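Continuing the batch. This is chain 6 of the set; chains 1 through 5 are on the previous pages. Same settings as before, nothing changed between runs. Recording input and output for traceability.
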Amino acid sequence: MPCGNCGGCARRNPGPLSETEQVLLDELARNAFLPVARFLLRSREDPEMAYVMSAPVYRPEGTESVEQIRQLGTALLSLQKRGYLTLDYGEPLGGFDYGAWKDAEFYRSFAFSVDSETVQPVLEPGSAALTLQGQEAADELNL
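Output for chain 6:
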């Protein structure tokens, strides 16, 4: 019986990386951290109650395509599951303007579609960082 998503199997035999995963590993290797966020629905009655609607969200400059943003999020989750990176929503990048993401069409559409008397949309900032295994994989890609 599998262990329930510990990621151990994927870490021992990660398989080939997609082109998108390779690009993300390269970006992380060059920048140390990437800004990510997650979109939440937070209860207006009980602010402690929140539901994750989309995570992780990564938006390279100028990216507005919802499909591309989804593809990047899927690749980040795959890299996390393989043990190549960590996603931390308690540690936003200092000096990064997450406010610009709130002004982007992809977030405004989400916020408009879910805002109601009972829930409010929230963009929760965070960061992605390579693990040691991720750094080794990035080094192998740049041989």
